Prior knowledge:
Strand content: 15-25%
Largest sheet: 8 strands, mixed
Shape: elongated
Structural class: alpha+beta
Strand order of the largest sheet: 5-4-3-6-2-1-7-8
CATH class of the largest domain: Alpha Beta
Low-confidence stretches: 332-402
Number of domains: 3
Amino acid sequence: MKIKLLPQNLINQIAAGEVIERPASVIKELLENAIDAGATEIEVKVIDAGKSFISVSDNGCGMDKESLELCVLSHATSKLNGENLLDIHTFGFRGEALPSIASVSRLEIMSATDSSSGAWSVRLEGCENFGLSPTTRSCGTTIEVRDLFFATPARLKFLKSDSSELDACYSALNHVALAFPEVSFRFLDSAKEKAFYPKVDGWQRRIEDVLGSAFRENTFPIDAEMDGLKLHGFTGVPTFNKASGSHQCFFVNRRFVKDRIFASALKSAYAGLTPQGRYAAAALYLEIPVHEVDVNAHPSKIEVRFRESEKIRQFIVSELKKKLRAFGASVPVTGMLDDRRGKSESASLYSVNFGERSGRKTFPSMISLSNAEEAFPQKLPPAEQINISEKTPEAGIPENAEKIFLGTAVGQIENTYIVALGDGDLVIVDQHAAAERIYLEKLKNNLSLDSQTLLLPEICPLTAAQMELLENNRDLLLKFGLYYEKLAQDLVTINAVPAILENCDAKSLVIDLVDELSTFSDSYSMDEKINRVLSTISCHSSLRAGKKLSVEEMNSLLRQMEKTPNIAQCCHGRPSYVRLFAKNLNNFFERP
Length: 592
């Protein structure tokens, strides 16, 4: 077969397949163009979830007649100064968006500058250019996209439901809005206003406007700098975790990205603090010299490559861990009970937020904290004064941390939950979960455990796969005081267990350890493996649910909790206690 050149319209349609996947892709590209044009006010309109009509209007610098003619040609751009693709300071620099959109839709662009040349418009249908014509409008640009994918109708079959496509449009707007608090954004769906974000001075207000008050109340700020890298934003207390990573927003030089480095850093920093299969909530912004990141790795520019990815990952992990040491004792807050009432987490946080704006009433949360000062009114003594029986790791409690005063115990519920009264609040403690965390933090300070020889060794049957896992991790288990001998391909005899466990069920311990080992992957670091093994040991050494305690024993546990880092969650990431204020009860009982 002979090689031949493809026609330009087919070239553009192929490019559109990479850049324009769905209506939300159009909105993303046009919003980025508006930001590059210096807009401070942007309005987005959609009809039929963007399939029938999309309009993005801004008050940016606009385009003159000559620029308007060129902007719809492939790879025509005003945003590259020179030939270095690692020196990118703008968003829509590739010159693919407008011709790609034009190749699969009916496109009209109206624009005007401050000059006296007036306003002009250009109209295209599937790459057929109908030329320029004069129009009227003030300085800025309006781009209207009608009948998306009319030129490639097969693409319409791959779109999801209207509600899913509309959610994606919301998300595209919100990602840009989160990055530019100094710009106002308005979103209209079929002429009905669904969202309005006024321009604000700081990130905190915009994050609350977009992600909701629950997100803001359950997160703490990050602000760090190292070797030209700057990290700021908000990340959630460990108990404010979600069923998916849709509540994690990452930005590089204000560009929203989907990057495994950020996700991996969050997973590593929250290891042992969130339940397995749950994800911490975060909105993190990384500022990095432009020559250290390649934003040209993918046509949609949503994936980036870093020159020193491991350095960036370690920087993020380190800063998150520092903050978690200070805020790790934060209590479960707004949204925690909502998740456990069966509230769906399949919808994105953004669409839930829009639902609230449109009048959907949500059930009042019983647990709500406006800020950390309300929860932790008293200062914690210096680490060297703390004694749980062994010294608490100093790294776990910073000097400026705030004390958790858990009140005075008044009784138990089902011999499982301790009820305590504080100054104007009610505290309910899961005694087993709290004891797990206390043991785990003590074990972290002593990574080599003594053994206790069993008077009567126990026989434990295992499958071939379990036996292989046990043998592959023998050295790790020996380090923590577990001694066993292999009797056969499916049998081991347990001779000694960690001394801290006292009268534990040795067979149950080994089975649980093997189950934990089976979850390890090659991506797990040794620290993560150690933490998971210690968590399993802590679970077996802890005060069990169902054990009756005296008031003195309950108060002793409360005082130990106040001296323990990360006490708000057990070693598996579940909450260990909740605090209810009078205002929470008033809300619950609908008192004014």
